């Protein structure tokens, strides 16, 4: 078992990583929020597997459990769904000390987290991530939120949200056994991102263990989760509210957020991040911030994992640039990007020339 502790000015919580942790959710929740009633928010796809284990564990710990099942899709990551959760919270008479336990991937964690952050101005949240992406990234650090409809149509990612730290994060690598390979690979994209930001040697580990990781070897995955989550913990501890270096975690994401809503690309979040990492690395290379050897190494590692490195369809550069302007990381008319320099080192660049950004898009298949 590995336990990481997140220590922040106003919060401190443990991330427990061990096979079998799911059946201890009740006990771990009770230690943080010993109220009589709890709300269990579960990804619809895993209600009868992992959801069932979590519910039994909460009931065994003495909770009267209300349950709500969510569809894990970006189109359901909305305020309307949060409203539905409020309805169940009110019907079940949840109080200020009643915990919300989120069992699922990043979508369930973000939506349930936002409901927990805002109901009665905040109730205890326990994150129980069941995708690799959520284990190494989304469940840690307190960002919660939903997408918003844009005035001219389409969806803006995570535009409405709140910082709300969980009281505990419970990671059971065993839950990854039911996750399909495509989503497992998507999670590996976020681990590669973490390695590029702050743990250069992790790139070698992922390259070395690629086969074991993709074939869901649980011990290898548990080791990766602990190391990758540790990067996130460190960054969040240094900058909880993204006033500075937490923005490094957005490496590849400004590109990814522009690609994700384009239905014809059919990209999962981590896949869009993988392509975004290639775009960012190419941009950095054009600016002389990293060498072509590093850019090729990143691309080759993504290839080894089976992640995409360019868009499958030729999308217009103008469309992608427009989408970027709606991303919340864009300040006024300047384009702020996170760009890699060398393994384990990235920089926030405030004013990237648009011509470089366009070339980066072209590098990953835009026309
Ligand atoms: N809050 C943050 O800091 C943060 C960080 C990164 C990403 N995110 C958000 O996370 C979301 C992506 O998360 P995700 O990749 O986990 O996607 P997801 O929540 O959509 O889950 C992926 C798929 O896996 C299924 N699933 C989940 N657990 C499973 C399991 N154990 N077995 C079988 N199927 C399972 C889901 O039903 C879904 O179909 C995005 O909305 C992104 O914006 C948030």
Description:
By secondary structure, this protein is an alpha/beta fold. Helices cover 45% and strands 19% of the residues. The strands form 3 sheets. Strands 1-2-9-6-5-3-4 form a 7-stranded mixed sheet, sandwiched between helices. The longest helix has 21 residues, at 218-238. The termini are far apart. The mean pLDDT is 95. The structure holds nicotinamide-adenine-dinucleotide (NAD). The site of nicotinamide-adenine-dinucleotide has 29 residues, from helix 4, helix 5, helix 6 and helix 11.
What topology emerges from the helices and strands here?
Blueprint: E1 2-8, E2 11-17, H1 25-30, E3 37-43, H2 47-60, E4 64-70, H3 79-91, E5 100-104, H4 106-118, E6 125-129, H5 132-138, E7 143-149, E8 155-163, E9 168-171, H6 181-198, H7 200-208, H8 210-214, H9 218-238, H10 253-259, H11 269-286, H12 292-305, H13 317-325, E10 337-342, E11 345-349, H14 354-363
Parallel strand pairs: 2-9, 3-4, 3-5, 5-6, 6-9
Antiparallel strand pairs: 1-2, 7-8, 10-11
The class by helix and strand makeup works out as alpha/beta
Total count of helical runs of at least 4 residues: 14
Uncertain spans:
none
Instruction: Report the average pLDDT across residues.
Output: 95
Number-wise, the strands total 11
Strand content: 15-25%
- In whole angstroms, how far apart are the ends? 49 Å
Question: How much helix, percentage-wise, in residues?
Answer: 40-55%
Please give the order of strands in the largest beta sheet.
Answer: 1-2-9-6-5-3-4
H and E string: EEHEHEHEHEHEEEHHHHHHHHEEH
Overall 3D shape: globular
Radius of gyration: 20 Å
Ligand inventory reads: nicotinamide-adenine-dinucleotide
Q: Report the sheet with the most strands, covering strand number, pairing sense and barrel closure.
A: 7 strands, mixed
């Amino acid at each position: 078992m590995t336990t990481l502790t997140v220590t922040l000015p106003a919060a401190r919580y443990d991330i427990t990583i061990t096979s079998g942790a799911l059946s201890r959710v009740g006990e771990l929740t009770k230690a943080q929020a010993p109220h009589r009633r709890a709300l269990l928010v579960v990804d619809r796809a895993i209600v009868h597997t992992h959801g069932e284990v979590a519910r039994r564990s909460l009931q065994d710990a003495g909770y009267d459990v209300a349950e709500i099942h969510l569809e894990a899709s970006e189109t359901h990551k909305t305020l309307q769904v949060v409203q539905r959760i409020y309805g169940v919270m009110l019907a079940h008479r949840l109080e200020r000390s009643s915990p919300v336990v989120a069992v699922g991937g990043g979508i369930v964690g973000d939506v349930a987290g936002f409901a927990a952050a805002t109901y009665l101005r905040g109730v205890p949240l326990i994150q129980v991530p069941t995708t690799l992406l959520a284990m190494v990234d989304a469940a840690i650090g307190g960002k919660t939120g939903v997408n918003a409809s844009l005035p001219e149509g389409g969806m803006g990612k995570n535009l409405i949200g709140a910082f709300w730290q969980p009281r505990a994060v419970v990671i059971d690598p065993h839950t990854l056994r039911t996750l399909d390979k495509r989503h497992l690979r998507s999670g590996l994209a976020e681990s590669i991102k973490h390695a590029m930001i702050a743990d250069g040697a992790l790139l070698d580990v992922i390259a070395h263990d690629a086969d074991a990781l993709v074939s869901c070897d649980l011990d290898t995955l548990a080791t990766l989760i602990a190391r990758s989550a540790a990067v996130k913990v460190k960054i969040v501890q240094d900058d909880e509210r993204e006033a500075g270096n937490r923005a490094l975690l957005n490496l590849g994401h400004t590109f990814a957020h522009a690609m994700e809503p384009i239905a014809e690309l059919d990209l999962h979040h981590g896949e869009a991040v993988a392509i975004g990492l290639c775009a960012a690395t190419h941009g950095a290379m054009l600016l002389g911030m990293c060498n072509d050897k590093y850019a090729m190494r990143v691309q080759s590692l993504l290839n080894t994992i089976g992640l995409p490195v360019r868009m499958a369809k030729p999308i217009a550069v103008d469309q992608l640039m427009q989408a970027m302007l709606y991303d919340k990381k864009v300040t006024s008319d300047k384009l702020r990007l996170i760009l890699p320099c060398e393994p384990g080192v990235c920089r926030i660049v405030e004013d990237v020339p648009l011509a470089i950004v366009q070339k980066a898009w072209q590098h990953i298949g835009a026309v």
